């Protein structure tokens, strides 16, 4: 099992590419997340996420540009 601290360290050290633009202006789905950091998508998405939050969903990651 990978700890939250390790995921944060690996995430910060990884170079990502934008795979496609998401549901909101400025939100890009990023690829390049190492497989050991993949987590399953939530069955029900959160309705509120703070600006700057880092999302992980399967092989994708993204940083929310606004709340």
Q: How would you sum up the global shape?
A: globular
Give the number of domains.
1
Q: Provide the CATH top-level class.
A: Mainly Beta
Largest sheet: 2 strands, antiparallel
Number of helix segments?
Answer: 1
Write out the strand line-up for the largest beta sheet, numbering strands in chain order: 1-2
Mean pLDDT: 93
Distance between the termini: 30 Å
Radius of gyration over all CA atoms, rounded: 12 Å
Percent strand equals 25-35%
Spans of at least 5 consecutive residues with low confidence: none
Helix content: 10-25%
Order of helices and strands: HEEEE
CATH architecture: Beta Barrel
Number of strands: 4
CATH homologous group name: Cyclophilin-like
| Category by helix and strand content | alpha+beta
Per CATH, what is the topology?
Answer: Cyclophilin
Can you walk through the features of this model?
With 67 residues, the chain is an alpha+beta fold. It has a single domain (4-63), classed as Cyclophilin (Beta Barrel), CATH 2.40.100.10. It is 15% helix and 25% strand. It has one helix and four strands; from the N terminus they run αββββ. The strands form two sheets. Strands 1-2 form a two-stranded antiparallel ribbon. A two-stranded antiparallel ribbon has the order 3-4. The model has no long low-confidence stretch (mean pLDDT 93).
